[in-house]
């Protein structure tokens, strides 16, 4: 490693270092690049749950988890659920399903998922 690379590494923030490590784990787990997901195509996504939200109770029950892979994000939506054990911020998840676009955001409805231990 040259001097330029070492200086670049020293100047990186902890957020940038975390994003790089997360991206490496995503690739090693077989996840697709979240910045390149195509609508109406099947995808395997991996990343850390950043947020978990619930729409208002007046609508259909749903659980929405935003997954981040260090570069991009995708929403996973489980319709008819208000909670799923283990799906919480900080959890690393691998999910499979067909990509839709909702309000400009890539979204997978009712994905098959696995909780993966962090490396």
C-alpha Rg (nearest Å):
16 Å
Main sheet record: 5 strands, mixed, barrel
Structural class: alpha+beta
Question: How much of the polypeptide forms β-strand, as a percent range?
Answer: 35-45%
Q: Order of helices and strands, N to C?
A: HHEEEEEE
Summed over residues and divided by their number, the pLDDT gives a mean of 88
Distance N terminus to C terminus? 24 Å
What would you call the shape?
elongated
Number of strands: 6
Helical stretch tally: 2
Strand order of the largest sheet: 1-2-3-5-4
Report the uncertain regions: none
Helix content: 10-25%
SSE diagram, text form:
Layout: H1 3-11, H2 14-28, E1 42-53, E2 62-68, E3 73-79, E4 92-102, E5 105-109, E6 112-116
Parallel strand pairs: 3-5
Antiparallel strand pairs: 1-2, 1-4, 2-3, 4-5, 4-6
Report on the architecture of this protein.
- The structure is a single chain.
- It is elongated, with a radius of gyration of 16 Å.
- It has helices at residues 3-11, 14-28; strands at 42-53, 62-68, 73-79, 92-102, 105-109, 112-116.
- A five-stranded mixed barrel has the order 1-2-3-5-4.
- Strand 1 and strand 2 (62-68) form a beta hairpin.
- It is built from two helices and six strands.
- The chain has 119 residues and is α+β, with helices and mostly antiparallel strands.
Keyword list:
119 residues, 6 strands, elongated
Task: Explain briefly what this protein structure is.
With 119 residues, the chain is α+β, with helices and mostly antiparallel strands. It has two helices and six strands; from the N terminus they run H-H-E-E-E-E-E-E.
